[in-house]
Amino acid sequence: MRSPSSARLFPAVLAGAALWCGSGCASTATYKVKVDAIGKSQAGETAVSYRLKNLNPSLTQDDLRYKEAANYVRAALAGRGMYEAAPDAMPDVIVELDYGIAAPSVKMETKSVPVYGQTGGGVNYETIPVTDAQGNVTMRTVPVYQPPQTEVVRYREALTPVPVYEKYLHISARDNKAVAEGQKPAEIWSVNTSLEDESKDLRKYLPLLASASMESIGTDTGRQQTIKLKANDQTVDFVKKGM
Length: 243
Hints:
- The longest helix has 15 residues, at 64-78.
- Helix 3 runs parallel beside helix 4 (202-214), helix 3 packs across helix 5 (234-241) and helix 4 (202-214) crosses helix 5.
- A hairpin with a 5-residue loop joins strand 6 (122-131) and strand 7 (137-146).
- This protein is an alpha+beta fold.
- The radius of gyration is 31 Å and the shape is rod-shaped.
- The two termini are 21 Å apart.
- Strands 1, 2, 3, 4, 5, 8, 9 and 10 form an 8-stranded mixed beta sheet that branches. A two-stranded antiparallel ribbon has the order 6-7.
- The protein has 5 helices and 10 strands; from the N terminus they run H-E-H-E-H-E-E-E-E-E-E-E-H-E-H.
């Protein structure tokens, strides 16, 4: 069964998002997202109905985190004119979804680090009155010790190890046709997106990763590419709204 609205919908979606955003959208940080897409078959151009399959072994279909990620992916697929098949319908493809955070790696960054030093301190001499046992007052010079103070005296550039975490989202579509026992259905297309920085907040980056996936679904990038996205980009806002 084909959807009557199987044409690629993303341009119309963007037009609506632009009207909502207007000129009042504030600029935000820019993120660099790596995208590697492979389109292996012309079947990907006509496959519009799908069913999602969770490939993340640590999450179940009912897990709230998985449901949130799945909604972002559904929005990205809708932006490419695809729709989720009804439970009793036969979908064109099975869309497999996996996401997570890879083991941390370390990169060296040049940072300004403070150099501390001691300032002040030493001995001062003061003349003070001293009264003896008979009540006689005489003047005496005594030492007064001043403790040194630890302060930042300058800054220097230094290579500093910084842990970074790769957040990734993998989406692939397999033909929903019977195959011989022990074989997997043919993969029609796949999109791998990732983003690397010091944050471990995967939830924050999932809309960015899904947005980066949207324009590459069913295409072939030829090699890994890097695109720039802002958290308030129209595509990101569309994905955040989900399905």
